[in-house]
C-alpha cells in the first residue's frame, strides 16, 4: 500500500515504553546545532530575495529589491563566529553534539567540517539547502535529498544517518527518504518525546522526534535575554528529569542556531544550561545517532508502525 502521512492523536498513550537508556539514565538529552549559513535563499543563489529567518531582522524583509547585505552578514556571523563559540562550550565540558547540516552550507566552510570530523559529532542531513521542502515538487525534493547525501559524504566523510527538513516536511519527504535509502532515522516530527517506528512502503522507518519548543528560536520571537532562555530550558529539563526519576524516562531535544545563540549575551544562557544539566546524576547527554542506535537495539521494529 502506498505510504501516506496519517495523523495520530494517541501515540504511546498513558503507558509509554521504558526506553532503558544506557546506565539507567532517567533522561536522554540531545543538543543540535543547525548549520544553515550559506545555503539559505539568497540573490547569489538565484532565489530572487534574501532570507532573514532567525536573525535580528526577526524574519521581516527590510530590502525588497536586490541584496540585503545586512541580513547576509547576520547569517555569516553564524558560521564565522557562532559555530566556534558554541562548539567551544561543548568541548570545554567534554559533551557531544549533533549537527543538523545543510549540505551546501557545510561546503562553504571546510574548516568547520574538519572540526566536526575531529570532534566526532554526528551529522544529520538538514537538506541540500535551507529551503522549505513542502514548496518543492516531488522531483525537486528527490534531487535535493540525493545532492545532500552525496555532498555530506564528501565534506564530512560519511553519509548522514538522519534526515530533518527546515520546519516541516512535504507529504512526500519521508517516502522519498526511505526510497533513497541509507538513513537510520528521520526527525521530521514534533509530536512525541520518545522515538517510534513507522512502516513506509513496507519498510521500517524510525522517527526520532525533534523540538521547536526547546529551541533558541525563541530568541527570534518573544524571548529577549539569556536569563529567560536558561530558565525556560532548565524548567523543561527539570520536569522531564523528575518524570524519569518517577519511572517515565523520556528524551529531550534542544535546538541551537549559530547566528542566534552564538552571540555572547545569548550563549551565556546555553553555558548555564549545560552546567545545570551536568550537576544531575543519571542524565545521558548524547548524540542523536546514538539515541537512534540504542532504540533500534533495545526496541526493534515490531513488525508494524505505531499508528497502524
TrEMBL record:
Instruction: Describe the location of the NodB homology domain by residue ranges.
Output: 69-286
Give the InterPro entries listed for this entry. Glyco_hydro/deAcase_b/a-brl, NODB_dom, PuuE
Look up the signal peptide feature and give its range: none
The family database entries (Pfam families) matched by this protein are listed as: Polysacc_deac_1
Q: Which CDD domains does the record cross-reference, listed alphabetically? A: CE4_PuuE_SpCDA1 (cd10977)
Q: Which domain of life is it from?
A: Bacteria
**PROSITE patterns under this entry?**
NODB (PS51677)
Q: Which GO terms describe its biological process?
A: carbohydrate metabolic process
Which GO molecular function, any one, fits this protein according to its record? hydrolase activity, acting on carbon-nitrogen (but not peptide) bonds
Instruction: Tell me the function of this protein.
Output: Is involved in generating a small heat-stable compound (Nod), an acylated oligomer of N-acetylglucosamine, that stimulates mitosis in various plant protoplasts.
Query: Which family does the UniProt entry place this protein in?
Result: Belongs to the polysaccharide deacetylase family.
What name does UniProt use for this protein?
Chitooligosaccharide deacetylase
Annotated organism of origin: Belnapia rosea
Q: What is the lineage of its organism?
A: Bacteria, Pseudomonadati, Pseudomonadota, Alphaproteobacteria, Acetobacterales
